[in-house]
Amino acid sequence: MPLPVPDRLSDLPYAHLLTPHSGPLRSDERYDTVHFDGGEYTDQRAGGATFLECAFTGVALSGVKLRQARFNEVWAQAGRWVGCDLSESEWQDSTVTGGVLAGVSAHGSALRRTVFRGCKLEAVNLRAAVLRDVVFEDCLLRDVDFGDARLTDVSFPGTTLEEVRLRGARLSKADLRGAVRLGLPDGHQGLKGAVISSTQLLELAPQFAHALGITVKD
């Protein structure tokens, strides 16, 4: 499972090495121990860029193209990622805390040992993504699409799921027991391999019955 999440920038093991960033983002650039602090990046292209031991604090990204970018040991706090293209990106040993991701395409991305804490994900496309050892803690997932994705050892403690789609997803030891709400409009067969509580099973029973064509009458 992911390592403990640092609460402060100074808690990062590489904090003393960080250097401030200036200027635009660039495609295929390698950013090593760079601090992106409070900047606004709009409609920029940074596809194929690598971010290694970097920190993002209060950064706003809008319409930024980050296709096939790599995020390794990245810490992002209180940022806004709106309308960004993160398709086929790779995330490993990274943390996103207190952020907003809206209208983001992360189709085909790969996330490993990554934590989202206190985040809001809305209209995020994670179709065909591969998630392993990922935690969504105290988050809101609204209109998030995990269609045809693979979720292994993924958990959702304190998280609310609204209009989250799992059609075609493959789950293995995906722990949903800590979720506050399971709003799953379709794709209930995608829950195969998930762990849910008995209370959640009762809440989902009418939807399971409907999916199986069962009419329940008293």
Structural commentary:
This protein has 218 residues and is mostly beta strands. Helices cover 6% and strands 35% of the residues. The chain has one helix spanning 198-211, and strands spanning 19-20, 30-32, 34-37, 40-42, 50-52, 55-57, 60-62, 70-72, 75-77, 80-82, 90-92, 95-97, 100-102, 110-117, 120-122, 130-137, 140-142, 150-152, 160-162, 170-172, 174-175, 181-182, 194-195. Strands 1, 2, 3, 5, 6, 8, 9, 11, 12, 14, 16, 18 and 20 form a 13-stranded parallel sheet that branches. An 8-stranded parallel sheet has the order 4-7-10-13-15-17-19-22, with no helix packed on it. The longest helix has 14 residues, at 198-211.
Radius of gyration: 18 Å
> Beta-strand level of the residues, as a percent range?
25-35%
Largest sheet: 13 strands, parallel
Distance between the termini: 45 Å
Tally of helical runs: 1
What is the typical, i.e. mean, pLDDT? 94
Could you name the ranges where pLDDT drops below 50 across 5 or more consecutive residues?
A: none
Following the backbone from N to C, one meets helices and strands in this order, namely EEEEEEEEEEEEEEEEEEEEEEEH
Helicity level: under 10%
Number of strands: 23
Q: What structural class is derived from the secondary structure elements?
A: mainly beta
Q: Please state the overall shape, judged from the principal axes of the Cα atoms.
A: elongated
What is the compact description of this entry?
It is built from one helix and 23 strands. With 218 residues, the chain is mostly beta strands. The longest helix is centred in the last third of the chain and has 14 residues, at 198-211.
